[in-house]
Amino acid sequence: MKIVYMGTPEFAVPALDALAAAGHEIPLVLAKPDMPRDRGKKLQACPVKARALELGLEVETPERLKGDKSIEEKLRTLAPDLIVVAAYGMLLPKAILDIPRLGCINIHGSLLPEYRGAAPIQRAILEGKEELGVTLMYMEEALDAGDMIAKASTPADDKTSDELFLELAQLGAELLMEQLPLIEAGRAERIPQDDSRASWAPRIEKEDGKIDFSEPARAVYCRVKAMNSWPSAYCSLGDRVMKVHKARLLTPSEEQELPGLLENAAKLQNAASPAPGTVLKADKKGLVIACGEGEAAVFTNIQLPGKKAMDVSAFLLGNKIEIGTVLC
């Protein structure tokens, strides 16, 4: 088939690779414009553009699609059979949606209709979903609201958002290649979404990484997983911002120790119970931190300004964190 591909981040690279490896004609790839990245703020191509150029494909990076007559005319001239989209970052106007004879399909990083929008993977992890997935869907003008073709899922387990991005990207590529023959033959499923079950996944902002220790331990743990690696979960250790890259929940044996740890910290603070964010224990297994509802989470990998991220076991060799210290 002749397929125009649209995508921007690393999530969209596996599907592009799969299409190219299968021998489909890809006359054009659309990606977001180059952006300043890293400390030098030099303009860099997004992952999809970089990969497309490696594959020898033509790439366009329009600032916008709506009202861009040159892109619209180019697509009409190319007359693709299908447009495939994955995390492109722009809505497709109706004028473009109507061009390919087989329509436009999207690889979306959630089990629709849940988590429509810009950050479905991180929002699902943040809300403690035990299963995440991807949905292959037909596109329409409304955001992520088109008929579904197929889904694939994976357990969340202890995976960070970075790990799930990679896993779901591969699942999405496999789902696309599995369904393409049916799409080409006009026999793919068209399953309407139940709009009453729709939820939204707004863009992640830096402020979303701020840890609220008054939340239960699982919520704190999920925030650390969801914000890895950007913007990173963070809190304050004294006058320094401390990033928390990895965390876990208490083991059964640690749960048995918790009442004693809470009592000891409360005595140090001369309070009925320790403040949320209190360091209850610090050893090679991690920092045990008091959370809401009398619970605790364990931080296992942290980072201070100007330092590398490191496991708590290594951090404590050169740094001391007193029991009773309150992170905020």
Quick recap:
The chain is an alpha/beta fold and 328 residues long. Helix content is 30%, strand content 23%.
**Mean pLDDT across all amino acids:** 97
Q: What is the string of SSEs from the N terminus onward?
A: EHEEEHEHEHEHEEHHEEHEEEEH
Q: Tell me the total number of β-strands.
A: 15
The first-to-last residue Cα distance is 55 Å
Largest sheet: 7 strands, mixed
Number of structural domains:
2
Helix content: 25-40%
CATH architecture grouping of the largest domain: 3-Layer(aba) Sandwich
Count of helices? 9
How much of the sequence lies in strands comes to 15-25%
Strand order of the largest sheet: 5-2-1-6-7-8-9
Description of the structure:
The chain is of the alpha/beta class. The protein has two domains: 3-197, Formyl transferase, N-terminal domain (Rossmann fold, 3-Layer(aba) Sandwich); 206-318, Methionyl-tRNA Fmet Formyltransferase, Chain A, domain 2 (Roll), CATH 3.10.25.10. The protein is built from nine helices and 15 strands. It has a seven-stranded mixed β-sheet with strand order 5-2-1-6-7-8-9. The longest helix has 25 residues, at 161-185.
Helix-strand layout with pairing:
Elements: E1 3-7, H1 13-21, E2 29-30, E3 35-37, E4 42-44, H2 47-54, E5 59-60, H3 69-78, E6 82-86, H4 94-97, E7 104-108, H5 120-126, E8 131-138, E9 148-155, H6 161-185, H7 217-226, E10 233-237, E11 240-249, H8 252-268, E12 279-283, E13 286-290, E14 296-303, E15 310-311, H9 312-318
Parallel strand pairs: 1-2, 1-6, 2-5, 6-7
Antiparallel strand pairs: 3-4, 7-8, 8-9, 10-11, 11-14, 12-13, 13-14, 14-15
